[in-house]
From TrEMBL:
PANTHER family: ACYL-COA THIOESTERASE, ACYL-COENZYME A THIOESTERASE 8. This is Acyl-CoA thioesterase 2. It catalyses: a fatty acyl-CoA + H2O = a fatty acid + CoA + H(+). Residues 50-128 form the Acyl-CoA thioesterase-like N-terminal HotDog domain. Signal peptide: none annotated. Its EC number is 3.1.2.20. The gene is tesB. Homotetramer. Keywords: Hydrolase, Lipid metabolism.
């Protein structure tokens, strides 16, 4: 996306068709395949899967695609985003990119997502040239490898009858992201638990090799489970129909190269919640134990 001279890159439909594309991967690539409609303007669509609001990770991923289309020779190293209004999945989203700065080492972009004439999302993203520097990182948690764990949908199959119909429908659907939780207890109990979870994640299918696509795909996946973590301490399961839950803001940092179609461990915790908001953090490690990305999110949590 960022390296092609025409600034459209491998997210063009003709380039994506060559990728290994099972149904789930084809859907994800279609989501990330924005249509250029004018200089610095792009249009994205949403899956017509019956949800009332656009998934927040989709908007993050599409906004990063739009920003990356305007940058050459540099990779995104951070993004900071705010969800302003719920997205309407029945109409396209227009992404307007503002080129704030093209410096010697860093490039800065601002992206506004618009529907029905009003902004629904705002994001700033920074891109950096590759250069050496001091390195250190925390250790990856000791967890079972993903091959020993069942996909989330299969793991929850014995419990489906105990879940709320809304939750049951969600987990029965095909998933664009393969999720393999280390522990399923928070899905099946209302017992208060420590607000920590470890989930192996990867995109279903092989992505093109462009590093920008892998960053955008991980940005999409980073929003799937992060806000759930703040519910654990209160004994509330993900997608609890008695709660109003929505992402308010989202930040990410990309530390090292990675592939989003290979297994990544998403270690998440929630240090605090209060004032109808839950605060959540995530560290993303690759199979070799390298810390490749980090995420932070605050979300709205309303209900008793």
């Amino acid at each position: 996306m960022g390296d092609a001279p025409n600034q459209e890159g491998p997210s063009k439909a003709e380039d994506l068709e060559g990728a290994s594309a099972p149904a789930e991967l084809a859907r994800l690539l279609s989501i990330l395949n924005l249509e250029p409609i004018e200089e610095n303007l792009y249009r994205g669509t949403s899956p017509q899967d019956g949800w009332q609001r656009v998934f927040g990770g989709q908007v993050i991923g599409q906004a990063l695609v739009a920003a990356s289309r305007t940058v050459e020779g540099r990779n995104a190293h951070s993004l900071h985003a705010y969800f302003i209004r719920p997205g309407d999945p029945t109409v396209p989203i227009v992404y307007e990119v503002e080129r704030l700065r093209d410096g010697r080492s860093f490039t800065t972009r601002r992206v506004i997502a618009v529907q029905h004439g009003r902004p629904i999302f705002a994001m700033s993203a920074s891109f950096h040239i590759e250069e050496p520097g001091l390195e250190h990182q925390v250790a990856m948690p000791a967890v079972p490898p993903p091959e020993t764990l069942a996909p989330l949908r299969d793991a929850l199959a014995p419990y489906l009858d105990t879940l709320h119909p809304f939750v049951r429908t969600f987990f029965k659907r095909d998933r664009l992201v393969d999720l393999r939780p280390v522990d399923l207890k928070h899905y099946t109990t209302r017992e208060p638990l420590a607000p920590v979870q470890d989930i192996w994640v990867r995109i279903n299918g092989r992505l093109p090799d462009d590093p920008a696509i892998h960053r955008c795909a991980l940005a999409y996946a980073s929003d799937v489970t992060l806000l759930d973590t703040s519910l654990f301490a209160h004994g509330r399961p993900p997608l609890d129909p008695d709660l109003e839950v929505a992402s308010l803001d989202h930040a990410m940092w990309f530390h090292r190269p990675f592939r989003a179609d290979d297994w990544l461990l998403y270690h998440q915790d929630s240090p605090t919640s209060g004032g109808a908001r839950g605060y959540n953090r995530g560290l993303v490690f690759d199979r070799a134990g390298r810390l490749v990305a980090s995420a932070v999110q605050e979300g709205l949590i309303r209900g008793d």
